Amino acid sequence: MTILYLIRHCETAWNREKRYQGLTDIPLSEIGLAQAERLSERFKNIPVDKIFVSPLGRAVKTAEYIKKYNPECDILIRDGLKEICFGEWEGKTVDFLKKSGCDIYSEFLKNPFNVNIPNGESFSHVKDRINSCIKEIILENKDKKIAIVSHGAILRLAVMSIMDFDETFYRKTWLNNSSITEIHLSDTKKLLLRLNDFSHIDDL
């Protein structure tokens, strides 16, 4: 049985302000660091063999806290796990873009797979990127316990890929900062046992 723990990085100031971050490398906030400490406690009694992580600092820092109680565990950077490039939208808030009257953004909120983000990355490309990366990680780590630390949009696409969900899944779910999603894989089964579990930080 292969066990995957999909973890969204802990909070940054831009998360709190509801700004699109994309490839902008924003560090964890004070609250994010407190979340990371709580997250590390969750993994105190959960051994993991490897931690795969996005190259962006907020994800790497989160991974370091998971490693705290798994000191022999390697942290492995994978470019395929980096956040979507949101192009011209990076640094802008959701409210600003909603009020801007931008037709592309309005369509993006309805179906991001139909939109090319201005000077950004298309969801179709990102979907292919994460699908390839996740398949490689699973293939190379059969019957191991793997933590994957990445970003909200990327991890929702990863769940879609692993569980063979269609594109409508993306708009029907959300992953909070520091949340854990757990999937068990065998030769005959795919089980989504936990989705967006952030009970360790619900009082922060």
Descriptive account of the structure:
The chain is an alpha/beta fold and 204 residues long. It has a single domain (2-201), classed as Rossmann fold, CATH 3.40.50.1240. Helix content is 37%, strand content 17%. The protein contains 8 helices and 6 strands; from the N terminus they run βααβαβαααβααββ. The chain has helices at 13-16, 30-42, 57-67, 94-99, 103-110, 123-140, 152-163, 168-171; strands at residues 2-8, 50-53, 74-77, 145-150, 180-185, 190-197. It has a 6-stranded mixed sheet, sandwiched between helices. A hairpin with a 4-residue loop joins strand 5 and strand 6. Helix 2 (30-42) runs parallel beside helix 3 and helix 6 crosses helix 7. The termini are far apart.
Blueprint of the fold:
Elements: E1 2-8, H1 13-16, H2 30-42, E2 50-53, H3 57-67, E3 74-77, H4 94-99, H5 103-110, H6 123-140, E4 145-150, H7 152-163, H8 168-171, E5 180-185, E6 190-197
Parallel strand pairs: 1-4, 2-3, 2-4
Antiparallel strand pairs: 1-5, 5-6
Helix pairs in contact: 2-3, 6-7
Short description:
This protein is of the alpha/beta class and 204 residues long.
N-to-C order of helices and strands: EHHEHEHHHEHHEE
CATH homologous superfamily title: Phosphoglycerate mutase-like
Strand content: 15-25%
Under CATH at level 1, the class stands as: Alpha Beta
Mean pLDDT figure: 96
Oligomer: single chain
Number of helices: 8
Globular, elongated, flat, extended or rod-shaped: what is the shape? globular
Query: Which stretches are poorly predicted, pLDDT < 50 over at least 5 residues?
Result: none
